[in-house]
Design brief:
The complex is a heterodimer.
Chain A (H helix, E strand, L loop, with lengths): L2 E3 H15 L3 E5 L3 H4 L2 H6 L4 E3 L4 H13 L3 E5 L2 H7 L1 H9 L5 E5 L18 H6 L5 E3 L4 H13 L4 E4 L4 E3 L14 E4 L4 E5 L4 H13 L4 E5 L2 E3 L3 H10 L2 E9 L4 H12 L4 E6 L9 H7 L4 H12 L2
Helix pairs in contact in A: 1-8, 4-6, 9-13, 10-11
Chain B lengths: L5 H22 L5 H17 L14 E3 L6 H11 L39 H14 L6 E6 L6 H12 L5 E7 L2 E2 L2 E2 H5 L4 H7 L3 E6 L3 H13 L5 E6 L22 H11 L3
Parallel strand pairs in B: 1-2, 2-3, 3-7, 6-7
Antiparallel strand pairs in B: 4-5
Chain lengths: 310, 274
């Protein structure tokens, strides 16, 4: 199975789209080698702006370019894009509803060894709260490419959450991303696992193991976290006895919270939220870190079995 | 729009001061001091300097103006009403529910409002982005912003100032309303921003310091900025908060309150409103 980091898929697709959409400009804050906007920069140097280590200026400048008709892709590490620059993004991009796409990499724990200062476990929560901002978390390279293509055509602010880590493909080449729609990756009948992002492949592996042990398990890729596929959430809640959300994010405010919000108002049912349990990350290899927080296949399986009393 | 003479601009600025005070007095909240300190600059921009067409607000090659000091919105609205972007009756909606004249500007190109602002220090970068778009598209429009001394305490303003200087954005002019007062008192007592001219020079800006109420000086500075190549221009305008009404002038109290009925009467008398 081909493994590709979503940041790589983003960078390559963006460079391709640059040919089709002359109005695309790309901004980075001294991390173009890491966010992979370097591919676009090499191909279209006139349309690439490295703003240096200045994330607020990055957002403000993006707003000005968008106000003058540009389709602006902005990249840096997720922690700085959503943390340091949250308020300029909220005030100058989201509020005037400008056409700026924040495509931030090294999200979640994927920056591994750098530790908690560079990891991002709160970004979905704080961006999702801003009115009219789309929040997308691709699960593999195929989905990333489709989301970037969607964003090039779409108008308005968006947050695309990218990972540094290489992940196996979980979608077929024929997969078609649709905004506001979840996608069933594995269909079962007793347990439903909602997930998104890099760990989707780990969740799938855990689901397969659970099914092998006689528990029929569904896996739903909820990569469109905002807008959320509420209909699918309710349909899954009706069909399954047990519901879980699994995410590489704090259990406060992320995918699990978004699903819980839908359930509590439309189909009250217990949802077990697996993720980072209200704590900061720490240094270590990415695999060691997600193992530690129970988000590798083994950890996910252990949590599921504990809840299911297996 | 037709370029007005200095004498016409001075008359216009007085008329716009009256408009500002009528709006803020009617709203019974908002900022009195700032709009009066920056209105001479804005009058010069909208009725002398900028290429714009109220009949065609979306004209691609129009000059852009960003009110970084978003709390002085009544001054911007007064100019846009006078220029014909905003229907005059809308002035009574300022800060009221359902009005497009929000307490701080909200992007509305139909009405000539080029950007949402209000959180200080952000307009510098936004204006740079607009100037970069002009350059990228080979267009001749210029981008102006109104900064403030309080806003100069924001780190983001200097991130933007560094970018404009580094990028040699000579289609970019920042006017800075240096009235020396912020909400909690005098700027020099809270966190002095001086010397502003040396700071901008160090960031590779062509820098001018003028009397921000001297219309001839404002016009001359804007003319000079047009001739500058390879650098953005900062025009630091020394002003008096509340300028034009003796009871408001240089009094921190009037930064963020509306005039009472009695104060409004005095103001109208001093400004010669019949």
């Amino acid at each position: 199975m081909t493994e590709i980091a979503t940041r790589d898929a983003y960078g390559k697709k963006l460079a391709t789209l640059g040919e089709i959409y002359p109005e695309i400009v790309v901004l980075d804050a001294d991390l173009s080698g890491s966010t992979k906007t370097e591919f676009f920069a090499k191909k279209f140097p006139q349309r690439f702006f490295n703003m240096g280590v200045a994330e607020q200026d990055l957002m403000g400048t993006a707003a000005g370019l968008a106000a003058c008709g540009k389709t602006v892709f902005v990249s840096t590490f997720a922690i700085f894009a959503t943390g340091r620059a949250w308020e300029p993004f909220r005030q100058s991009i989201a509020y005037p509803h400008l056409n700026v796409k924040i495509c931030a990499s090294h999200a979640g724990l994927s920056v591994g060894e750098d530790g908690a200062s560079h990891q991002t476990v709160e970004d979905i929560a704080i961006i999702r709260a801003i009115p009219f901002v789309k929040v997308l978390v691709p699960s593999d390279g195929i989905e990333t490419e489709q989301m970037v293509e969607f964003l090039a055509k779409d108008s308005g602010p968006c947050y695309l959450r990218l990972s540094r880590a290489k992940a196996p493909l979980v979608h077929e080449a024929s997969y078609q991303f649709q905004i506001g729609r979840g996608h069933i990756l594995k269909e079962g009948s007793t347990v439903c696992l909602f997930t998104a992002g890099f760990i989707t492949s780990q969740v799938l592996a855990a689901a397969l193991e659970l099914s092998n042990q006689g528990v029929s398990t569904t896996v739903v890729n909820m990569s469109s976290i905002k807008p959320l596929d509420s209909k699918l959430v309710v349909a899954m809640a009706e069909k399954h006895q047990y519901l879980f959300s699994i995410e590489e994010h704090s259990i406060i405010g992320g995918l699990g919270s978004a699903i819980a919000e839908t359930l509590v108002s439309s189909y009250p049912k217990k949802l077990v939220r697996l993720g980072i349990n209200d704590e900061f990350g720490q240094s270590g290899s990415y695999q060691a870190v997600i193992d530690h927080y129970g988000l590798s296949t083994r950890g996910i399986l252990e949590s599921l079995k504990k809840e299911l009393k297996l | 729009m037709k370029k007005r003479s200095v004498a016409e601009l001075e008359d216009l600025a007085c008329e716009l001061r009256i408009l500002i005070l009528k709006m803020v007095h009617h709203a019974q909240c908002g900022h009195t001091g700032g709009p009066l300190s920056c209105i001479d600059m804005l009058t010069a921009l909208y009725f002398y300097e900028m290429n714009h067409d109220p009949e065609n607000p979306h004209w691609e090659n129009r000059d852009r103006f960003v009110l970084s000091a978003g709390h002085t919105a009544p001054a911007l609205y007064a100019c846009l009403i006078k220029a014909g972007y905003i229907p005059k009756d809308e002035m009574w909606g300022l800060r009221k529910l359902g009005s497009k004249l929000q307490g701080h500007p909200k992007l509305n190109v139909d009405w000539g409002i080029e950007m949402s602002t209000g959180s200080l220090g952000q307009g510098m970068s936004i204006s740079n982005g607009m100037a970069m778009a002009a350059r990228l598209d080979g267009k001749s429009y210029r981008v102006y912003s109104l900064e403030s001394d309080g806003g100069a305490q924001e780190g983001m303003m200097w991130e933007g100032a560094m970018s404009a200087g580094y990028r040699h954005l000579d289609n970019r002019v920042a006017l800075l309303d240096y009235n020396g007062i912020q909400i909690d008192g005098f700027v020099k007592d809270i966190k002095d921003v001086a010397p502003l001219d040396k700071k901008f020079e160090a960031f590779n800006w062509h820098t001018l310091v003028i009397d921000g109420h001297d219309m001839s000086a404002i016009v001359a500075a804007l003319d000079e900025a047009r001739l500058v190549k390879g650098k953005p221009t900062a025009i630091i305008c020394k002003t008096i908060m509340g300028k034009g009404v003796s009871i408001f002038e240089n009094k921190p109290k009037y930064h963020g309150v509306a005039p009472t009925d009695d104060e409004f009467k005095i103001a109208m008398q001093e400004l010669g409103d019949q």
